[in-house]
Amino acid sequence: APAPPPARHLFSDPAEVEALRGNLLAWYDRCKRDLPWRTLAVTEPDADRRGYAVWVSEIMLQQTQVATVIDYYNRWMQKWPTLQALAQASLEEVNELWAGLGYYSRGKRLQEAARKVVSELAGRMPRTAEDLQKLLPGVGRYTAGAIASISYGQATGVVDGNVIRVLCRLRCIGADSSSPAVIDRLWDMANVLVDRSRPGDFNQALMELGATVCVPKAPLCGECPVKQHCQAWRRKLFGNPPKVPDIEDCGVGDCPLCPPATEPWDSSLGVTNFPRKAAKKPPRAMRTATCVLERRGCHGAPEYLIVQRPSSGLLAGLWEFPSLPLAQDLQEEREREELADHLQVWMGQPVAAKGLQFIGEVIHIFSHIHQTYVVYSLPLDGDVTLDPALSPSRWVTEDEFHASAVSTAMKKVLKAHEKQRRQESSPVKGSKRKRGAKAGGAGST
Ligand code: SF4
């Protein structure tokens, strides 16, 4: 078995653990943010509804800011207040409500899991972290621990990005914080620390501390309720540990939790020396041609053709303007021809590549993809008969477009198209777009 890590990386003093819990919980009681899922976790008497309410919040909060989630959460809980209600919803409705929140498979998986609880578990939420993780698709170790501790009072720790940062600083853990060895140690530590009588509050307090005080770039150590337990803070105040380590310190050079010898403590960084991560792989670059096909609707208002994406993969089941992934470095002429061929399939009639009007490029950063949409438009005079044998497609007004399950990236494409139309209709500013022009701001989901 591997040797236990040196004492400075652990919480081995029960008195210190007790003091840290008390300080953190007292701070949480004073300073916690008022959030709708926290209210439900405390006021909802029905255990299954309570677990469901926490579950929805935890899934929405993955990779997404609290401020963004609140409105989505309230609308979701109003529409589907119970597992049974969600189980009866269609995927289309779920995607529509989720539109703009990003990482779309989360909503789909949540609904699939709700259906499973209703059909296979008689509507009863599993009550422990172990069962939640085992029985619910899409529920990993973190989400299971959060639901079990917050909804059902199970004394089990949680480790998310905020907790990783706080724990690495509290115990000067500078080895790669995304490595399985370090993550395992952090889970052990979270399980040691979690308060036995208020586990849900303790876990939320630790995450709240990471979100509001022990933030990534400029932590507010002076206001921190646990600074007296923080090794990184102590090190910032008192400088490097002595060259010859005492019994509390790590062995020289071979500690699995210390920063590598090649990356020593940088005093200009202070506590932000921790945590450290191995460099991320840069996102993959992709180019996609997309075309805003436009016709006049019955009242003269523009209508746009949207088509549904496949039910698996990136943005599964969402609607988009007809789009086509492009090879990198494709010449413009070839790009237009390929897009025209693609459109011909949807429209059932020949499309002249020259008729496609270039609008600009819209960049959208997904977590692992740097996506450039090369946007064209094509106004249509006559009607187009859509082939029902192809993927689902429909004509929508602008309002219907925004109410549909479309990604943020597609909303940016439409915005770029409208901007171009406005410029064209303005006598002063009317202009043609040049290739390479950025038609919409970069954004991420
Ligand atoms: Fe984070 Fe500073 Fe508090 Fe340490 S003292 S836990 S670094 S905010």
TrEMBL record:
Gene Ontology annotations for the cellular component aspect, listed alphabetically: mitochondrion; nucleus
Cofactor: [4Fe-4S] cluster
UniProt cofactor note: Binds 1 [4Fe-4S] cluster.
GO biological processes: base-excision repair; mismatch repair
Single GO MF annotation: 4 iron, 4 sulfur cluster binding
Gene3D superfamilies: Helix-hairpin-Helix base-excision DNA repair enzymes (C-terminal), Hypothetical protein, domain 2, Nucleoside Triphosphate Pyrophosphohydrolase
Major site of localization recorded for this protein: mitochondrion
Family, per entry: Belongs to the Nth/MutY family.
Name of the protein in its database record: Adenine DNA glycosylase
Organism whose genome encodes this protein: Dicrurus megarhynchus
Gene symbol of the encoding locus: Mutyh
